[in-house]
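User: Teach me something about this protein's shape.
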Amino acid sequence: MSDTKGTNENPWKLKTPPGTSEYEMHKDVKDGKEILVCTVGKTILHYDYRCINDLHNMLQEHGNWIFLGSADEQKPVIEGTVEAWGRSEKNPLGGWYGLKKGLRGRFGMYLPPLLEELGLAELEHNPKNNRMRAL
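Assistant: First, the predicted structure itself:
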């Protein structure tokens, strides 16, 4: 087993911000592109790997707490949240960081705990309405 965290053999073991669900993430390559693989039960989501640095940079520029605003792809988002930024045409990617059609949402649920694990952000762990900020 690899000592390096974030691999398929040694994924990051994370909990959603409220601490109610566990999931795993690891780095992989698909079609020549670096991705994050997020496994939640039997559901597998993919995010563009750039989202880690891009989200951290956005948090640093924002400079204060920002609400997560997690939502499924089919649901509307609250503007000014991490979720809205993760699908915005104004982010560095120019749209969705989620890569699997139908499962592109929940950016504000699954990415913030990874940034906390990596020491890049501080995250609240309330039952609802959690926020994050850059460290």
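Now, about its shape. The mean pLDDT is 96. The chain has one domain: 12-134. If you'd like, I can walk through any region in more detail.
User: That's plenty for now, thanks!
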